[in-house]
Design goal:
With 265 residues, this protein is α/β, with parallel strands linked by helices. It is 33% helix and 20% strand. It has a 6-stranded mixed beta sheet, sandwiched between helices. A 5-stranded mixed beta sheet has the order 1-4-3-2-13, with helices on both faces. It has a two-stranded antiparallel sheet with strand order 6-7. It holds the Pfam family DUF34_NIF3.
Length: 265
């Protein structure tokens, strides 16, 4: 039976943790490394409902994208949301491994999953940060050709919403048909100029700010905000499949309580 440390080792090869950005806190964040794992849950976020689901299913490990500990924890009590989650993990004897910006950047990570879900062709990196220890390129974002070039911004927004199961898609119409598309899972609005430099007419990301919409329209780029959850949750199922193949003795499941945190009308 594999241990938490062995699962961490697999994830470290898939998306090396030393590739994470300086602000990040990805890694093995909760639990005991030698705990044997019979069952694990994969989620985008480790929320209290996700931890409760993991406990009910008898899981020893939760693997997530977003770090369960991001800001420094000065007290571990039930008086804060983070404290309640960490206490529930500890009391349930469960570990947590979180692969964040390292999983964003690697070739088979968040952004490749997002690009493939949107059926982009001829994928390339939007921005290359460097090479990992095995000489593989890594960097945030991907660029590709639209599955059906020539769609209007409105048509493509509807397509993006359907493919991602997004609660909503907000967009600023750049005035050009959709042909060359950049994607950046999560908060990548600051990479608008990178998309422009690659000759993209459309950029799909999340957490877009007011001034970024204005800038995009001025640049003639259609900028779409499909939501943080929807643009990153696409990695969870492929990640679960990779873990299941690597550890056939572990029952790997997607968290059913892993849900979009907001609704839209």
């Amino acid at each position: 039976m594999a241990t938490v440390n062995e699962v961490y080792g697999f994830l470290d090869k898939l998306a090396p943790f030393d590739l994470q950005m300086d602000f990040d806190n990805a890694g093995f964040l909760v639990g005991r490394g030698e705990t044997q794992v019979k069952r694990l849950l994969v989620a985008l976020d480790i929320t209290l409902p996700v931890v409760q689901e993991a406990a009910e299913k008898g899981c020893q490990l939760v693997v997530s994208h977003h770090p369960v500990i991001f800001h420094p924890v000065k007290a571990l009590t039930d008086q804060s949301a983070t404290g309640r989650v960490l206490l529930a993990l500890a009391e349930g004897h469960m570990a947590a491994i979180c692969a964040h910006t390292n999983l964003d950047a690697v070739m088979e990570g968040v952004n490749c999953c997002l690009a493939r879900t949107l059926e982009l062709k001829d994928l390339e990196q939007l921005h290359q940060d460097g090479l990992d220890h095995e000489g593989r390129p890594y960097g945030i974002g991907r660029v590709g050709t639209a599955h059906r070039p020539g769609m209007t911004a409105g048509e493509y927004a509807a397509f993006v919403k359907e493919k991602l199961g997004a609660a909503s898609v907000r967009y600023a119409d750049g005035g050009r048909p959709v042909r060359h598309v950049a994607v950046g899972g999560g908060s990548c609005g600051s990479m608008l100029c990178d998309a422009a430099a690659r000759g993209c007419d459309t950029f799909v990301t999340a957490d877009v700010k007011h001034d970024q919409y204005i800038q995009a329209r001025a640049m003639g780029i259609t900028l779409m905000d499909a939501g943080h959850f929807a643009t990153e949750n696409v990695v969870c199922a492929p990640l679960a499949e990779k873990l299941a193949r690597a550890f056939p003795d572990i029952r790997v499941e997607l968290a059913q309580q892993n849900r979009e945190p907001y609704g839209a009308v």
